[in-house]
Amino acid sequence: MEHLTPHHSGWIEVITGSMFSGKTEELIRRLRRAQIARQHVAIFKPDIDTRFSDDHIVSHSRQQLESTRVKKATDILALAKHVQVVGIDEAQFFDVGIIEVCRILAKQKKRVIVAGLEKDFRAQPFGHMPELIIDAEYVTKNLAICVICGNPAGFTQRLTNSGDQILVGETEAYEARCRNCYEEPKE
Asked: Which of 13, 90, 118, 175 is catalytic?
């Protein structure tokens, strides 16, 4: 779903869902369209995310766009001063400042597009995504495909025994699962 920019206004769009649901792919699609429209775009990701590239956001289908890694959310403000559209990937990994950063950018009449996991492998809210979802004007929830039964999947199944909430990985550590095939982790 595309959103036309009203005059003298900014807003927040959130793209969320489980792992392998196409969040980054949708973020890239929206940002590419903004670039085609000759809008000035800046793209950010958390410093922790180096899975595919240090200087690009990369989808699991290997689509990519150049981005800047930042240590803390407030770093984005100075780097996005002269742009119209701000893209933020893996927002669940940012500190609490991400909420206020998105609000400030939207008040500066920027279109802010944020992608991130809504819940972790325990099916609990992940990071500050719930607050971003509540604050957003537009929310898109993507579903993956359950690797067990093929139904729509909204859960991320961790395949390793790590109990840490943050474990950056992909298919070696996680699978998309539907509600019925998802297994709660054993503590």
From this structure: 90
Q: State which amino acid sits at residue 53.
A: S
d(C-alpha 111, C-alpha 107), whole Å: 10
- Residue 10: name the closest of 140, 139, 136 by CA: 136
Cα distances (Å, whole numbers) of residue 28 to 15, 31, 44, 103? 11, 5, 12, 21
Coil, strand, or helix at residue 56? Answer: strand
Condensed to tens digits (0 to 9), the pLDDT of residues 111-120 reads 999 999 999 9
CA–CA distance, 68 with 132 (Å, rounded to integer): 21
* pTM score over 0.85: yes
Active site annotation includes 100: no
- Residues 155, 182 contacting (CB under 8 angstroms): yes
